[in-house]
Write a structure and sequence with these properties.
The complex is a heterodimer of chains A (about 120) and B (about 110). Chain A is about 0% helix and about 50% strand. With about 120 residues, chain A is an all-beta fold. In chain A, the strands form 2 sheets. In chain A, strands 2, 4, 5, 6, 9, 10 and 11 form a 7-stranded mixed sheet that branches. Chain A has a 4-stranded antiparallel sheet with strand order 1-3-8-7, with no helix packed on it. The radius of gyration of chain A is 13 Å and the shape is globular. Chain B is built from no helices and 11 strands. The chains are: A mainly beta (about 120), B mainly beta (about 110). Chains A and B meet through strand 4, strand 5 and strand 10 of A and strand 5 and strand 10 of B.
Chain lengths: ~120, ~110
Amino acid sequence: EPEVTQTPSHQVTQMGQEVILRCVPISNHLYFYWYRQILGQKVEFLVSFYNNEISEKSEIFDDQFSVERPDGSNFTLKIRSTKLEDSAMYFCASRVAGGYTDTQYFGPGTRLTVL
Amino acid sequence: RKEVEQDPGPFNVPEGATVAFNCTYSNSASQSFFWYRQDCRKEPKLLMSVYSSGNEDGRFTAQLNRASQYISLLIRDSKLSDSATYLCVVKGYSTLTFGKGTMLLVSP
């Protein structure tokens, strides 16, 4: 069964450093998402991406964040200058296209720890 | 303002018990509704979609009341493997809004 993959599984970084989290969505999917989950908190939407552009973003997704689909398979989330409060689990998700009930499939997540 | 609200639990039940979770949502324009399951430190996984007419998948039954903005999940004949956090999820046009989840612990 095809699945969303994410690398690395765990990233430790120093405050102020840039990090890039990588995702490989399911191959025939057209919509891509990043969510985050701070430990003990709910899963929160960050950004959605379709047709090579951001289609929607939350207030969390400020100028420190960017997304890119550099080639036909990878989808990346960059945090330019990490803060302690960026420590969280970051989940990538993808779905096929169209319809309100299309399922979003989640990757296993990257645990980001900012020291 | 909590967009999707759930009782955090934990619900401690013995194997074989029936347990019900409830959820309320604030955005009346929400288009679709789901229950996801999340194991500790893992990704959310879709358990089932929730339809207005109610739907059942094996031991799991989901109900939606749009007028009351209320969603429920019933689990019959609980198994040890059902122990997890159950996330109520509401979808607008594209993005998912998650509740904080209800923890279920099934004991032998």
